[in-house]
Amino acid sequence: MRVGLTLNQDFRPRTTDHGPRTVPAGFTLLELMIVITLILILAAMAAPTYHVAIVRAREAVLRDDLYTLRKLIDQYTIDKQKPPQTLDDLVEAGYLRGGIPADPFTGRNDTWKTDTEDVPISEQTGPGLVDVHSGSEETSLDGTPYSSW
Predict the structure, then answer these.
(1) C-beta separation of 70 from 131 below 8 A
(2) Quick one: which of 138, 93, 92 has its CA closest to 111?
(3) What whole-number distance in Å separates Cα of residue 70 and Cα of residue 94?
(4) pLDDT digit string (tens) for 74-91?
């Protein structure tokens, strides 16, 4: 007597019950549509939050760059006893080793707006940079233009 399963032509065990299958073979179109709709709804809710997070990150980089540039202008003025004439003077003197940073909203490093005034140093005054601003014409999340920061 032989022990084991007898297989039919497509290698499935023979069964005596030829009724309908009880195990579903996959997902229905309706189930897939519902899942896709839920994913799209969640993505639509997350997209504005993502955009605001990107703008906030750029604003933080702009604040940090402006703080650094202003601090370096003051340090250059004190060290050299004269204000820098351009931002390139800061790079040439070694105050900005990596070059002038790119404005996060314009994406370029040549769009910075600078304020030039006579700077009193000891007994004399000399014209030079006193402040720097973003060259972007956009407005921030709080409603102020970036060029006024």
Answers:
(1) yes
(2) 138
(3) 15
(4) 999 999 988 999 999 999
In the numeric block, the tokens 């340090």 are attached to 75
Q: Could you tell me if 105 and 134 are in contact, meaning their C-beta atoms sit under 8 angstroms apart?
A: yes
Residue with tokens 């000399």: 126
Residues contacting 49, CB < 8 A, separation 6+: none
Structure tokens at 87: 């931002």
Tokens describing residue 130: 């006193």
The length of the chain is 149
Low-confidence ranges of the chain (pLDDT < 70): 1-24
pLDDT of the residue at 20: 63
**Count of H-run helices and E-run strands, the chain:** 2, 2
Residue 78 tokens read as 């004190």
Dihedral sign of CA atoms 54, 58, 63, 64 in order: positive
Contact assessment for residue 126 and residue 119, using Cβ atoms and an 8 Å cutoff: yes
Which secondary-structure segment (H or E) carries 117? strand 113-121
